[in-house]
Amino acid sequence: MENTIRSLQQEIIDFEISTPEDLEAFRIRYTVRKGLIANLFGQLKSVEPAEKPRIGQMLNQLKQTAETKSAEAAEKFASEVSGGKRKIDLTLPGRRYFTGSEHPVQKVLGEMKRIFSDMGFSIATGPELELDSYNFDMLNFPPDHPARDMQDTFFITREENGNDVLLRTHTSPVQIRVMLDREPPIRVICPGKVYRNEAISARSYCVFHQLEGLYIDKNVSFADLKATIYSFAKQMFGSDVKLRFRPSFFPFTEPSAEVDVTCYLCGGKGCRVCKKSGWLEIMGCGMVHPNVLRNCGIDPETWSGYAFGMGVDRTVLLRYKIDDIRLLFENDIRMLKQFPA
Ligand code: DAH
Questions:
Q1: Per-domain residue ranges for the chain?
Q2: Which residue, of 2, 87, 104, 198, has the greatest Cβ tally within 10 A?
């Protein structure tokens, strides 16, 4: 017993405590309730009674040594931390925090909005859940007219009185809301999501983005429309872009046109994206139909205007060389991370 105590005493004196981890190991070995010292105290009862006081004193001494050493080390580490002397490895790489970024659709929409607001357009928005009458009737789609079939509609509720609720198939109903709400002159763009019940593929999805434009004033002509679109296209697609207006039909404009720009991937020579034609369609447009103005309480004898509506997503796909439109809607972090702020 005596020898054991002596060798333990020496061991404790020699134990090197240079880190908090060493201290913890020291504590566990010697001073905790089930440590070596406590164990020796347990053996005291089998020591001969005459020897007990002396051995007991030795044990107390041992315990004292261990406790003092442990307390001194603890104090040293505490003062190192509070004195700012904690060892920090300055060569370690810093921690990176993940920051959000702008979705590529919002980047392109943002650019479109900036170009039009520089030309004096303000921004108007409308609901994605829309009344049938705003989405179709007020825009001069006659009931049962086949033009309604151009857009496969998601109906939400079917009502007897024609006030069906649907997911808007285009941003044009926002034109109606703005005209009902404000007096001309009006100059707005209306960006937003639209929905169509179409077969889903890499090229088309059930939801996509449009940007609508509406300008109502006195003596607005088709030449004003062309100049505006041309100025927009030069800023959006490059200063040497060429435009082509093809006659078309929309119930809410007369005359109507579809606008193509020279393919900005091949410069108009013809490639896979423009299907060898050299042209990319960017929007529909036209002079606002007098019936639409009348439906909104605006006198077509005094006021005239133009409107246009363009798809946003295709420009996003082409600009960032994304080959599947579904990637724009899945919010896959692996894709979004590639568009840092
Ligand atoms: N709303 C049409 C569509 O979704 C696009 C459009 C065409 C909008 C001509 C217009 C316009 O404002 O004048 O296909």
A1: 2-82, 104-336
A2: 104
Determine the pLDDT at residue 198. 87
CA distance 129 to 157: 11
Q: What is the pLDDT of residue 176?
A: 98
Q: Residue 221 is encoded by which pair of tokens?
A: 């002509």
Task: State how far the Cα of 296 lies from the Cα of 181, in Å rounded to an integer.
Answer: 9
Tell whether ligand 1 has an atom less than 6 A from the beta carbon of residue 286: yes
232 alpha carbon, distance to own chain's centre: 26
Q: Which of 232, 217, 141 is nearest to 179 (CA)?
A: 217
- Quote the pTM value: 0.73
How close is the Cα of 253 to the center of ligand 1, in Å?
8
What is the second-level CATH architecture of the domain 104-336?
A: 2-Layer Sandwich (3.30)
Which residue in this structure is represented by tokens 């405590």? 17
Instruction: Report which protein residue has its CA nearest ligand 1's atom 4.
Output: 170
CA-based nearest residue to 70, from 129, 23, 105: 23
